[in-house]
Write a structure and sequence with these properties.
By secondary structure, this protein is an alpha+beta fold. The protein has a single domain, classed as 2-Layer Sandwich (HIT family, subunit A). Helix content is 20%, strand content 20%. The chain has two helices and five strands. A five-stranded antiparallel beta sheet has the order 1-2-3-5-4, with helices on one face. A hairpin with a 7-residue loop joins strand 2 and strand 3. The chain starts with a helix and ends in a 9-residue tail after the last strand.
Length: 113
């Protein structure tokens, strides 16, 4: 989608400080970090949200979670971390492109916020 900021990043039309990239995914720091480590993991393919996931997206979702695990190890998040996907306006999703937040580096209480 031309007006989607994450699609523009995936197409390399907009710069991002990539910390990970493969054929399906990219990861980069959140511009409004909520923890010492706050990365966004996005699929290069546009999917609006978790509400739009289909059965054939299973491999992509597995890749996202395995990438989150690998990045948590890379950033030495040995005490724990959180992986979050906000869905829809009421769920706090601000960019209509599926993305997962990897947060760590501090105690993350519950409920969040």
């Amino acid at each position: 989608m031309a007006d989607c900021i994450f699609c523009q990043i995936a197409a390399k039309e907009m710069a991002a400080d990539l910390v990970y990239e493969d054929e399906q995914l990219m990861a980069f720091p959140d511009i409004n970090p909520q923890a010492p480590v706050h990365l966004l993991i996005i699929p290069k393919r546009h999917i609006e949200s978790l509400a739009d996931i289909q059965v054939d997206h299973g491999g992509l979702l597995a890749s996202i979670l395995l990438t989150a695990k690998a990045l948590a190890k890379k950033y030495d998040l040995t005490d724990g971390y959180r992986v979050v996907a906000n869905t829809g306006n009421a769920g706090g999703q601000t960019v209509p492109h599926l993305h997962f937040h990897l947060l760590g580096g501090r105690d993350l209480g519950w409920p969040p916020g």
